[in-house]
Structures are given as C-alpha cells and as structure tokens.
Design a protein that fits this description.
alpha/beta, elongated, about 25% helix, seven-stranded mixed beta sheet, binds adenosine-5'-triphosphate, Ribosomal Protein L25, Chain P, about 550 residues, 4 domains, 29 strands, binds magnesium ion, Rossmann fold, Glutamyl-tRNA Synthetase, domain 3, 12 helices
Amino acid sequence: MSLNENQPSSNFIRQIVNNDLKQHKNNGRVITRFPPEPNGFLHIGHAKSICLNFGIAEEYNGSCNLRFDDTNPEKESIEFMEAIERDVSWLGFEWAKLASASDYFEQLYDYAIELINKGLAYVDSSSPEQIRHYRGTLTEPGRASPDRNRPIAENLDLFRRMRKGEFADGQYVLRAKIDMASPNINMRDPTLYRIRRVHHHRTGDAWCLYPMYDYTHCVSDALEGITHSLCTLEFEDHRPLYDWVLDNIDIDCHPQQIEFARLQLEYSIVSKRKLNQLVTEKHVTDWDDPRMPTLAGLRRAGYTSAAIRDFCERIGITKKDSWIEMAVLENCIREDLNHNAPRAMAVLRPLRVVIENYPNERVEYLELGNHPQRPELGSRKVEFAKVVLIEQDDFAQLPPPKFKRLIEGGEVRLRGAYVIRCDKVIQAEDGSIIELRCSYDPDTLGKNPEGRKVKGVIHWVSEQHSVPAVLRLYDRLFSHPNPDTLDNFLDALNPHSLEVLSDCRVESSLATAKPGSRFQFERTGYFCLDEEDTQPDKPVFNRTVTLRDSWEK
Ligand code: ATP
Ligand code: MG
C-alpha cells in the first residue's frame, strides 16, 4: 500500500483517474455511478460513497448515474427508491441517468445464454447446502458438482425452462464455470442465477429467475459505460469475478473497479440491516428518527447537506478501515450552524420571575440582533414585560462555587435586556420554588450598571408573549463507541437518547418560523423546527447538537 492510500484525502482515486486521463483511457471520459440497493434508507456511510462518486464526476466534467441495485426483490420497495432519490437530491447532487439493474434483466439473461453457449456456465441441481459443502474452504480446494460437465445443449434447455417457471424455487441454479480450486472462493463457480418466485417492485411477476449481485453489477456498469466503478473494500475479493464476467461476454466496455474503505462511525451503526431492525423493533420512531444516522434522520435533526458534504470531505477516502469519531460529524454541523443559524431564546424548564418595580402594563419591544458576528442576518423584536421566565437552573438557592447566575440577593443580566436582582424567593410548602420576586435596574439597558460588576448573563422570555413549545433533546443513539463489535448491538442503545420537554417557552418570533428552519437557542443548543410534528400553536423543536461536545472525555 502506498503512503498516499493512508492519507485522509481522495488522492489515491484521483491519481488513478488522472493517470487514466493522461493516457486518454476511456476517450478521456469519467463516468461513475452510485448503486444503492433499495432495501432501506441511505445512511451517513452512503453519503461518503455519494460524495465520492458524484464528486469525482463533477471534478472531471464527467457524469454520475444513480442506479438501484434491485436483485433481491424480497427486501426492496418503491418507497425505499423514492427515499433514496430524495436523499441524493437533498445532498445536492444530480444524476445523469436514473436506472435500475432490473432495467437490464433481459440483457443479463442474454449474456447468461452467451456464457452457457461458450461452455462457461452450467445449470446445477445441487442444493444450497451441497454447493456450500463442495465449495471447500480457504485451505481446501472445492470439488466439482456432478452437474459441472452437463452438455451445453442441456444447460440451455434447462436455463430457458428455469425462466419459464417450470421448476420449483431452489431446484436449479446457474453457475459460472471458473475454477473450483481457485484460492479465491468467489471464483469457485459462483452462482449467477437463482429461481425465486417473489414479486418484484418494478418487474412484478415477469421473472421468477433473478440474477445475483456479482453478475449483475459488472454487467450493469458496462452497459452504462461506467469508467470507474468505486466500491467498498469488501468487494476487493470480488474484483476477479467482476473482471471475469466482462472478459467473457461480448461487451465493449470494461470499467475499472476501485475499492475504498467504508465509513465506520463511532457511537453509530451503518448497516441497513441493523438500521432496519431498529425501525421494525421500534427502538426508534422510523427511518427518519432524528437519532438515526440516516440522511433522512440527520436532516430531520437539523443537519444541513452542506455539513454532511463537509464531513465527507474531511474524512477523505482511504484504503484502510478506521473508525471516525462522532465528534467529527457533530463539529461539522456545529460550525455550519454557528455561522448560519439565527439566534433565539427558548426556556426549557421555566421559572417565573416577577419584576416588581416594572410597570404592570408596560411592554418594551427590544431589537435583538439575530447573529452576534453577522449583522447582515438582521434583527427581530423581543417583548420584555413584568413577568419573565428563566431557566430553573439559572437560579440557585445553594449556589455551587463560581456560580455566576442568579442567587437570592444577587444580580444577573437578562440577555439583551436589563440587570435584575432577586429580592425574594417564593416557595411552596414542600420547598419547591414557585417564583422569584425581583427588581430591575432601569439604567442597565444596553449598558453596564454604575459602580458594580454583573458577570452573569442568562436567557429569558416574556411569560405573556412567549409561545409554548416542545423541545426534544436528542443524544447519541448508542452509548458504546463501537456497537457493531458487540454480540448484540442493541445492548449498546443509550437509554437517554431522547428527553422530551413539553413545557418549554420560546420567544414569540418563533411562532412564525418555517418548519425545517434552524436556530441556535442561546446557551442551550442548536435546534430545528420539526416539519412533521409541529402544530400551528405548538412548535416542536429537535435538538440537532449541543453547543459544545459534552461527550469529550
Ligand atoms: P448496508 O450494509 O448498509 O446495506 P450496502 O453496502 O449493502 O450497505 P448498498 O445499498 O449496497 O448498501 O450500498 C450502495 C453503495 O454505498 C455501495 O457502493 C456501497 O459500497 C456504498 N456504501 C455502503 N455503506 C457504506 C459505508 N459505510 N461507507 C462507504 N460507502 C458505503
Ligand atoms: Mg448491499
């Protein structure tokens, strides 16, 4: 492995492409594809592949296709296709061609006939167990099936009748005739076709014979004129088969398969099978649950597509498996939202503050900037009145050392408004605090008080003007950094991955916010207005990420 391949940059694939272009390979064209199986929603790992495939195409003025790799009808659906199209578009990419492997079923069948005619494929009646048994192991060569030398004419006849539906599921398979002694087990006469009576979401019941992934993929690539077929490392051992198929059929394109390392993200799962299990067993609400590492989940949590593309850029492309820290992803969205999200005030757990020396009916409309560093993002009006709400934990009766917020007899600044002093704590019989009686210093709007320092600044909303809201505090779905390495990844589920706060109050300007819009709630985190669960009079905000990394050791 060269040094380059270890560097977190896409250099090693770019280098190959550069060399190819120098030699005027593929007539100087670069055509890639992103080939998801429509058996689930796309996750952050797919984003890496999407950014690579579409990114390389863009960079070299080429094109990239979106191709559904739909050869396992039992698990695939139109719903998943639509979700995938939505997510690729959302990430900001445009495919040159939208295709499905099932578009090529007829051509794939014809190429299989060609292989049979060349004596390079045969119909085998062995059971799956027998095939597995005969295949051998890493240390032992395989053994030939008794059907391996079936005459060509008989293979042709049986294969045609397989298509017609004359045989039961599993009664026969079509296998490539390659080398039962190959050190690469993928080359020991791999199965090309199996009989399966399953309704296909695109071809319906037209077929009961479905091609296998390895056979389908290379032919589909070649039919689309793909120049560079980028895939993850687990396909490295399949490359000889990829090449074997294309070398042995009459097709005038031979894409180059290049492997790169999958994304593995700490505290997360990037396997559609396991994500599917989380959904079907209801550990999450759905594929777009904001805790899910799916693109739909990340979007719903408030991630921007720019942050995800930035993440893919930062992690780079290598040939070596490694775990990426969750903080890398979280920092991408933090940086984006820190720069772009307007500020607003929300009180998560309200505590009533009555400002006794403030005139009863007065309301002041304070003009607060939307972003401390970016005046161009404008300002909004926030009402200030006699009764305001602050966070319960911004007041302490028994303050810990260095507590800079409100204490009895102490002062604090209300962000963008006045300095208040707590004169009296009103408590219920059980000791719980009902409200604080305070007074304000009218001389402190936008300026420091005379002769004394007030260090703390806390956020607040007007009781009368603020809007009730639900805030959903999402945290990492798993509390173990590598859930995938456990016997049961479900054991690593974080029991505190969601806390719902139903009695929050947000400033009135948020009443008209557009669903999907994102904010930094002062001092509490980044939030996104949920598009699905928000009601006209009850906004629901999802926490995208905390202001700082609280998982840091
Ligand atoms: P999963 O195990 O989640 O189902 P997959 O590889 O089976 O993943 P596909 O829909 O077949 O999912 O993947 C489409 C493309 O995305 C493939 O080229 C695959 O290599 C790539 N891909 C999938 N997961 C990752 C990942 N974690 N990192 C990078 N690329 C990935
Ligand atoms: Mg797959």
